[in-house]
C-alpha cells in the first residue's frame, strides 16, 4: 500500500477501500492523525490551494512509455492498448474536452517525449511537453485508481500531472470506467478539490460510471476560469452570417499568405464566416484555405466554401479528431475574385467548442510587389534675392548763397579853386585812379542781374580847366 502522498497529490480510490489523504510534507508518513489540507469549500465544489495563474490555454500530453514516472517506469500506453485498444486515447481527450467546453479555458493536446515525470522547468522556459501529463504504472494497490498533483507553483513539471494505476481492470463505459476517473483527475489538475457533494465527479471516492460533469463541477471550474464566452468578432456581430463575414486582410507586401487567430466557437452549433479577396496582379496558381485548432484547443473543425445564396460548394471535415486541421484547395483563381468560407464544428456533442486560426495561402506563386509610383522630384530651391533695406534719404536743405550788394565806386569831384595863380610851369597831369568794378559772383541756382560798372569821367587836364575859368571871367 502506498504510504507516502505529496501535499498537493490527490489520490482517487474505491469507496470500500482505504483512501489516502494529503500529508503535511514530502517525507514518507504512515497513516495516523490526519493533517487537513488548506481548502476552500463552497457548497458543492471545493478548491485546492493553487490554480493555474493568468491562463486561458493549457496543454496536456502523454509521455512515452519507458520514462521514469515518479515511483516506477511509465507503461500506461502499452497497458491500456492491451486492455482497451486504441480508443482509450479518444476517451481521455473527451474527458479533457468536457472541462474546457464549460469554462473559458482552452486545453489542447501537444506532443511529449522521453522526459521523466519529475522534470524541472525554469519559469522562463517553455516545457517540451504539456502542462498536464498523463502517465501510469502499477501501484500494487487495487484500491487506489489514480493520483494527481495540483496546479503550480513549485517549478517542477509534476504540477498538474496524473498517474493512472495500470494494475486496475479498466473498462470503457462500465466499472472500472476510465472516463470517470480521468474526469475526476483532470479536475484536480485544474485546481478543484473533493467536495462533500456525492453527486459531484470530484467526490473523493469512485461512485460508479459518471460520464459527465455535475452542476457543482461546472460551477467550480467557472469560478476559477470563468464561463466560455464569444470572441470579439461575434460580440460585434461580425462573421455570424455570410452577409457580414470577417474580411481577411490581403497578404503583406511580397508575402503569399494571410492568417487570423484568436477566434472561438463558443457554443455547439456555432459558425463563423470569412471572406478572402484575391489581390490584383496576383500571379499564383491556386488558393488554399486552412482552419486549424492544432495546439490551440480540442476543436474538431469543418470548413465549407459557400455560394452567394449560402449553399455549400465544397467542404472538408475533421470528424472524429480533435485539435486538428482541415484545408480546401480551390486551384486556379483570378485576380479580383472573392470567396466566402464557413467554419463550424465537425462534431455536435464533443470537440464542438474551442479556439482556432484561419489562413489563406496563395500557393504556387507570389503576390507581386506593386510598382511604386515614380517619386516626385524635389523642386529646385530658389534663393530669394537679399532684401536691401534702403534708409530714408533726407534731402539737404537748399543752400542760399549770400546776397552780393553791388559796390558803386565813389565819384571824386575835383575842387576848382576860385582863383589860380598863373604857374610858370604846369605840373604833370594827375591821372585819377580807375576803380575797376568787382566781378559779380554767379550762382548756378540763382542768377542775379549784373550791375554795369560806372563809366569813368573824362579826364580833364588842369590847364584846360583854367582856361575855361578865365574865359568866364
Query: What is the number of strand segments?
Result: 21
Oligomeric nature of the chains: single chain
Order of helices and strands: EEEEEEHHEEEEHEEHHEEEEEEEEEH
- The outline comes out as elongated
Number of folding domains?
Answer: 2
Strand content: 15-25%
CATH topology name of the largest domain, in short, is Collagenase (Catalytic Domain)
Q: What is the helical fraction, as a range of percent?
A: 10-25%
Mean pLDDT: 80
Find the CATH superfamily of the largest domain.
Collagenase (Catalytic Domain)
Name of the level-1 CATH class of the largest domain: Alpha Beta
Helix/strand layout:
Blueprint (H helix, E strand, L loop, with lengths): L8 E6 L25 E3 L2 E3 L9 E5 L6 E2 L2 E2 L2 H9 L3 H14 L4 E4 L22 E6 L6 E6 L12 E4 L12 H13 L1 E2 L11 E2 L8 H11 L6 H4 L10 E2 L9 E9 L5 E7 L10 E5 L8 E6 L5 E6 L7 E5 L8 E8 L8 E8 L100 H11 L1
Helix pairs in contact: 2-3
Brief characterization of the structure:
This protein is α+β, with helices and mostly antiparallel strands and 473 residues long. Helix content is 13%, strand content 21%. The strands form 5 sheets. Strands 7-4-8-10-9-1-12 form a 7-stranded mixed sheet, with helices on one face.
Keywords:
473 residues, 21 strands, five-stranded mixed beta sheet, seven-stranded mixed beta sheet, Jelly Rolls, 13% helix, 2 domains, alpha+beta, 6 helices
Amino acid at each position: 500500500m502506498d504510504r507516502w502522498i505529496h501535499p498537493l497529490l490527490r489520490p482517487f480510490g474505491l469507496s470500500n477501500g482505504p483512501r489516502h489523504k494529503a500529508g503535511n510534507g514530502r517525507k514518507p508518513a504512515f497513516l495516523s492523525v490526519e493533517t487537513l489540507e488548506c481548502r476552500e469549500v463552497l457548497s458543492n465544489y471545493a478548491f485546492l490551494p493553487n490554480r493555474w495563474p493568468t491562463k486561458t490555454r493549457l496543454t496536456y500530453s502523454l509521455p512515452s512509455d519507458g520514462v521514469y514516472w515518479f515511483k516506477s517506469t511509465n507503461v500506461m500506453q502499452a497497458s491500456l492498448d492491451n486492455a482497451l485498444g486504441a480508443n482509450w486515447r479518444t476517451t481521455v481527450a473527451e474527458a479533457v474536452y468536457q472541462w474546457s467546453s464549460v469554462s473559458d479555458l482552452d486545453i489542447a493536446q501537444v506532443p511529449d517525449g522521453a522526459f521523466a515525470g519529475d522534470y524541472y522547468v525554469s519559469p522562463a522556459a517553455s516545457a517540451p511537453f504539456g502542462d498536464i501529463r498523463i502517465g501510469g504504472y502499477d501501484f500494487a494497490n487495487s484500491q487506489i485508481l489514480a493520483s494527481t498533483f495540483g496546479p503550480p507553483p513549485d517549478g517542477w513539471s509534476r504540477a498538474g500531472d496524473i498517474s493512472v494505476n495500470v494494475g486496475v481492470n479498466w473498462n470503457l463505459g462500465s466499472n472500472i470506467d476510465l472516463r470517470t476517473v480521468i474526469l475526476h483527475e483532470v479536475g484536480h489538475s485544474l485546481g478543484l478539490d473533493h467536495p462533500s457533494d456525492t453527486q459531484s465527479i470530484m467526490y473523493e471516492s469512485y461512485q460508479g460510471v459518471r460520464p459527465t460533469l455535475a452542476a457543482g463541477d461546472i460551477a467550480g471550474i467557472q469560478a476559477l476560469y470563468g464561463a466560455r464566452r464569444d470572441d470579439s468578432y461575434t460580440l460585434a456581430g461580425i462573421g455570424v452570417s455570410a452577409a457580414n463575414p470577417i474580411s481577411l486582410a490581403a497578404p503583406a507586401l511580397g508575402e503569399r499568405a494571410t492568417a487570423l487567430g484568436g477566434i472561438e466557437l463558443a457554443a455547439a452549433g456555432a459558425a463563423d464566416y470569412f471572406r478572402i479577396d484575391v489581390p490584383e496582379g496576383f500571379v499564383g496558381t491556386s488558393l488554399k484555405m486552412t482552419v486549424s485548432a492544432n495546439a490551440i484547443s480540442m476543436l474538431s473543425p469543418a470548413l465549407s466554401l459557400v455560394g452567394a445564396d449560402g449553399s455549400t460548394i465544397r467542404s472538408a471535415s475533421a470528424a472524429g479528431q480533435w485539435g486538428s486541421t482541415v484545408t480546401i484547395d480551390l486551384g486556379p483563381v483570378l485576380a479580383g475574385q472573392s470567396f466566402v468560407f464557413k467554419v463550424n464544428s465537425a462534431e455536435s456533442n464533443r470537440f464542438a467548442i474551442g479556439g482556432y486560426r484561419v489562413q489563406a495561402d496563395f500557393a504556387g506563386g507570389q503576390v507581386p510587389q506593386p510598382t511604386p509610383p515614380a517619386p516626385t522630384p524635389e523642386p529646385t530651391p530658389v534663393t530669394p534675392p537679399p532684401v536691401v533695406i534702403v534708409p530714408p534719404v533726407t534731402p539737404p536743405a537748399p543752400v542760399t548763397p549770400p546776397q552780393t550788394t553791388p559796390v558803386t565806386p565813389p565819384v571824386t569831384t575835383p575842387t576848382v579853386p576860385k582863383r589860380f595863380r598863373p604857374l610858370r610851369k604846369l605840373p604833370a597831369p594827375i591821372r585819377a585812379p580807375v576803380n575797376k568794378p568787382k566781378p559779380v559772383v554767379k550762382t548756378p541756382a540763382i542768377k542775379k542781374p549784373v550791375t554795369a560798372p560806372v563809366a569813368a569821367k573824362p579826364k580833364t587836364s588842369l590847364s584846360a580847366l583854367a582856361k575855361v575859368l578865365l574865359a568866364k571871367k
